[in-house]
Amino acid sequence: MGDQDGAHVSPNNGPESDDPTVIGFRPIPVQDALARREPLPPRTGANTGPIPPPPREAPAPLREPPPPPIAPPTVPQPVARPVETASLDAIQPTERPSRPEDLLPAAAATLLALASELRRASAAQNVDDMRHKVVEEIKAFESRAVEFGVAADEISAARYVLCATLDEAVMTTPWGTASRWSANSLLNQFHGETWGGEKVFIILDRIRGNPAQYLSLIKLVDLCLLFGFEGRYRVVEDGRYELDILRDEIGRLLKRHVQAPPQELSPRWRGLSARRALRPYLPLWAVFVSVGAALSLAYGIFAYRVVESVRPVITELDSLDTNQSPMPAFPPPPVTQTRAPAPQPVVRAPAPVVERAPEEERRRPVRRVEPRRQIEGPLVLTPPSRSTGSGAQ
Q1: Looking at the domain assignment, is residue 173 inside a domain?
Q2: 215-226 and 239-257 are packed helices; what angle lies between their axes, rounded to 10 degrees?
Q3: Residue 19 lies in a domain
Q4: Which of 72, 261, 272, 287 is deepest in the core (most CB within 10 A)?
Q5: Residue 253 · residue 215 · CB < 8 Å
Q6: In angstroms, what CA-CA distances link 12 with 9, 28, 38, 155, 298?
Q7: Rounded to whole angstroms, how far apart are CA atoms 49 and 57?
Q8: CB 154, CB 217: distance < 8 Å
Q9: What is the CATH number of the domain that holds 210?
Q10: How many domains does the chain have?
């Protein structure tokens, strides 16, 4: 750094104004630097001749400036979204259900939907105004339950469960904790209590013993658990696991006592068919009779047309004169007489010639051949004697 700083200092210890660049300063030409230098004072002494100028320094090679840095990719900025707020304006009550186990859930449909909306709301328009509307809606729930024919004790228990669910939904949000809701909760206004996380499950244990009578209330508690109510299980260890087991038990209880829902979502979802089957309206024998009648009618029509087409020919034949002599018969063909072939002479075959033996042969006596005797014992072959052989010779 010292050398670099010294390169930019003039002999009179004055800074030189080099042009700034991207990597430093561009050196000024030597001629300009020499022209701006002040003359040195004359030296006194032996050597008083002219002082030669200092040796010229070679200019530093100019470097090409580096390319401009690549601009970083533009990251899309998140678009500001409106803050989700809780409101009761878009929630409308439902009509009276047809099944008795749906009476309390139908009457509290608006409050259940509000509890779900409060849990995911990031802010509230006006907490005090909203609380006032919730109080009015709880009173409307009681009126609808009375119109549906629900007993007074069930309405009171259902109101307690709903107040505890709504209070917990509000107090688990940041805006609810910062509000004055906890100082004047719904349970405190309607039942004079500040926390219902324990009593809700006590009520559930009591009504589970008589599910046939309190089936609608059991279903309402199950819906509150479904919409996020935890109560005492929020603060105990493994509370979520125990709450899941409890919900499974309630589900099995409802499955045993609640009427199974219909297989089809809507009983009238099928449109009217353009073609109807013929068999449900017409028996099979009628089909065969109709086909036979149609074939008979077609045969009669074609037969009538054939007769009508040959009728002129028949009329013309009938109008012919029948008194005319018949046509003469053709003479029979002449009979040609053929002669029988002449009889051929019969040639008799010559009689066979029988050669007769000479008289001597006829007179020779016939040798009688005796039958062979059965030889008993071993067969012994004796060679002929020489005397017999010689005599024979």
Answers
A1: yes
A2: 140
A3: no
A4: 287
A5: no
A6: 8, 17, 8, 103, 136
A7: 24
A8: yes
A9: 1.25.40.590
A10: 1
Question: C-alpha angle 24/26/28, rounded to 5°?
Answer: 145
CA atoms of 337 and 308, how far apart (whole Å)? 57
Its pTM stands at: 0.47
At 148, list the tokens: 């549906």
Cβ proximity of 42 and 48 under 8 Å: yes
Question: What is the rounded average pLDDT of the residues 271-299?
Answer: 79
Burial class for 201, CB neighbours closer than 10 Å (0-12, 13-18, 19+): middle
Domain limits at 199?
Answer: 92-257
Measured between alpha carbons, how far is 134 from 128 in angstroms, rounded to an integer? 10
- Does residue 359 belong to any structural domain of this protein? no
Asked if 145 contacts 136 with a C-beta cutoff of 8 angstroms, the reply is no
Residue 392 pLDDT > 50 = no
Helix, strand, coil shares, percent, the chain, to 5: 45, 5, 50
Query: 230-234, 327-331, 389-393: lowest mean pLDDT where?
Result: 389-393
Pairs from 62-67 (Cβ < 8 Å, separation ≥ 24):
62/26, 63/23, 65/21, 65/22, 65/23, 66/22, 66/23
